[in-house]
Design a protein that fits this description.
The protein is mainly alpha-helical. It is built from 3 helices and no strands. Helix 2 runs antiparallel to helix 3.
Length: 84
């Protein structure tokens, strides 16, 4: 029979696991978009304009993905709770 502490800890990890990668996903989206903007700036010699545009686009895209994922996880969690 498992110990109550280990069981509650594993349940906590199961509940938190879907949220652990969200920060990394947000940061990765922003960094990739900034690198794309920097590449375009270097290619067409337009200094910071495309880096700024793609940086802002990366922030909005990353935030959109973050909010969409959290809302999806919350709705899934509430559906699972209703089944019980």
């Amino acid at each position: 029979m498992p110990e109550p502490e280990k069981d509650s800890l594993s349940n906590t990890y199961r509940e938190v696991a879907p949220y652990l990668g969200l920060g990394l996903q947000l940061a990765a989206t922003m960094v990739v978009m900034i690198f794309i903007g920097d590449w375009i700036d270097k290619k067409y010699e337009t200094s910071p304009i495309w880096t700024l545009i793609f940086g802002v686009l990366g922030i909005f895209t990353g935030m959109y993905q973050l909010i969409k994922t959290v809302l999806n996880l919350q709705s899934r969690k509430s559906k699972d709770e209703k089944k019980l």
